[in-house]
Write a structure and sequence with these properties.
Strand content of chain B: under 5%
CATH class of the largest domain in chain B: Mainly Alpha
Strand content of chain A: under 5%
Helix content of chain A: 40-55%
Bound molecules: protoporphyrin IX containing FE
Radius of gyration of chain A: 22 Å
Distance between the termini of chain B: 95 Å
Shape of chain B: elongated
Strand order of the largest sheet of chain A: 1-2
Oligomer: heterodimer
Distance between the termini of chain A: 64 Å
Largest interface: A-B, 40 and 49 residues
Largest sheet of chain A: 2 strands, antiparallel
Structural class of chain B: mainly alpha
Number of helices of chain B: 13
CATH topology of the largest domain in chain B: Fumarate Reductase Cytochrome B subunit
Chain lengths: 125, 340
């Protein structure tokens, strides 16, 4: 083999880059986040599976309906009325952003910009 | 047509993953076994190819130059087009790898009436190439978020920049748009440009279609077919792959397995295909050799080991025969004992 002095270090760098996730994790798979679920209600707006995978699309739909067509229709859940709203629906049940939304979002590395404007719930320590 | 077979192959791959991942128990095959085998093939195959190339001797210095080489002090040296030192070669390679500088010089030859041959600068290939490759790079770097926990800070910076338009939720990434655009343009070029169409083969179309399939399934998964796409569960699977502790969460939508299967095929196909230009660009003798053949002697590695043989040595070896044959010699034979 020619140019061993360049090729071998080059290949080592390549392999290290490609296997970045393997050595960066130190072989620890880590825990899946466990968002704290509300205690005084049993049901979310939709089934858990749908909420877990599609809640951002739901919020986006609500936002468009409310702000573009002015459709603020209420919906009922376990006998209580809720507004189509981030602060006045989600946050009434999921009272902590840190212990709920953020647990998953930190894990999945998403930072929704909603809270630039919308008020995050006051966290009770 | 040369693109029907690759197209059919990619469609078949999608169907295999779609139907296969629906069979109970097969999720482990598509979610763990195949990706692992694919990554192993990729890394081993890649290294094998590079070592194989490194074993080929370079008999001559063959840098392509298109500028004034290093010469007398008052002649201006074109350092990038005709590098003479290692640092100039490094600069040239850097621009080649990061900015695709040689594509910037692409020209289009046309015959006009007359007949007159014209050459015109054609930067489209450079533009499409840059668009595609940088989008691809950013997408791959962003995907690291699925494989590591905690996610390193630079990934967040990329996500923020890429999602800066803040359209919809999940928000649209710029690179999703630009990679699609790049792919369509690169494919269109093979269809529309007659010369390029003529030289395009099935193995030019296959990677294009395969990457197109990966990108389309990714985009569908993020924005349109979100049913059962729980990123937390998917990340658990992906981290499991990286830490060798695989778990298959139940209920991940088929579109994810299709995406992952196409990626696995791409990885396994990579070392055997033209995609190896990723490694090859570093090993191109026409780019990575310095044009210094007048300063430093390049020795052909397969030259036999020839010892220098001076005339004096030659005469020493054959003097007797030369004298016998009456050929004049510079140094006479030593006087013989009986002649004294
Ligand atoms: C060649 C490598 C790959 C390419 C080019 C690619 C491309 C894409 C693209 C263009 C998207 C659209 C959203 C975005 O840009 O983030 C996407 C989404 C996605 N990809 Fe990939 N992908 C690749 C490898 C993988 C692998 C190995 C996995 C395995 C875990 C994966 C899992 C996902 C998931 C889960 C999404 C949805 C992300 C979301 O909803 O935010 N991809 N992919």
């Amino acid at each position: 083999m020619y140019d061993r002095g360049i090729i071998i270090p080059g290949l080592i760098i390549f392999v290290l880059l490609v296997t970045f996730p393997i050595w960066y994790n130190h072989g620890v798979a880590g825990d899946v986040p466990k968002p704290e679920l509300p205690k005084d209600s049993k049901k979310c707006v939709d089934s858990v599976n749908v909420m877990r995978s599609k809640h951002m699309q739901l919020l986006n739909e609500w936002r468009d309906e409310v702000l573009r067509t002015g459709d603020r229709a209420y919906f009922e859940l376990e006998g209580k009325k809720y507004q189509k709203s981030l602060q006045n629906a989600c946050i009434t049940c999921h009272t902590s952003k840190k212990k709920f939304c953020d647990t998953c979002h930190e894990y999945a590395s998403v930072t929704p910009y909603c809270w630039d404007c919308h008020l995050a719930p006051v966290e009770s320590e | 047509m040369k693109y029907t077979f690759p197209l059919a192959a990619v469609i078949a791959l999608v169907l295999i993953a779609w139907i296969g991942s629906k069979i109970p128990g097969m999720q482990y095959l598509f979610g763990v076994v195949i990706p692992w085998l694919a990554v192993a093939t990729f890394i081993i195959g890649f290294c094998y190819r590079v070592v194989h190339w490194a074993k080929s001797p370079v008999p001559f210095k063959i840098p392509t130059t298109c500028g004034q080489g290093y010469s007398l002090p008052w002649i201006k040296h074109d350092k990038l087009e005709s590098p003479a030192t290692t640092s100039q070669v490094v600069a040239r390679m850097f621009l080649e790898i990061f900015l695709f500088r040689s594509l910037w010089r692409n020209t289009k030859a046309e015959v006009h009436e007359g007949p007159k041959l014209t050459y015109e600068s054609s930067k489209w290939l450079w533009l499409f190439g840059i668009l595609f490759h940088y989008s691809f790079l950013v997408i791959i770097l962003r995907h690291i978020r699925l494989f590591v926990d905690p996610v390193p800070g630079f990934i967040n910076v990329l996500e923020f920049g890429d999602g800066i338009l803040q359209i919809g939720a999940p928000s649209i990434y710029l690179t999703d748009v630009t990679i699609l655009l790049g792919l369509i343009l690169l494919f269109g070029r093979r269809l529309i440009n007659r010369q390029v169409k003529y030289i395009s083969l099935a193995n030019d179309y296959f990677p294009l279609f395969l990457i197109f399939g990966i990108v389309v399934t990714g985009i569908l998964m993020r924005f349109f077919l979100r049913t059962d796409i729980d990123i937390v569960a998917i990340k658990r699977l992906a981290i499991g792959l990286a830490t060798l502790q695989p778990t298959i969460p139940t209920n991940i939508g088929s579109i994810f397995y299709i995406h992952l299967f196409l990626v696995s095929v791409l990885l396994a196909y990579f070392p055997f295909s033209k995609l190896m230009h990723l490694g090859g660009v570093f090993l191109s003798p026409t780019r990575n050799l310095a044009n210094d053949s007048r300063m430093r002697r390049h020795i052909n590695p397969w030259n036999p080991d020839i010892k220098p043989h001076s005339y004096a040595g030659y005469e020493d070896e054959f003097r007797e025969f030369m004298v016998d044959a009456g050929i004049p010699v510079e140094k006479e034979l030593p006087p013989k004992a009986d002649e004294e």
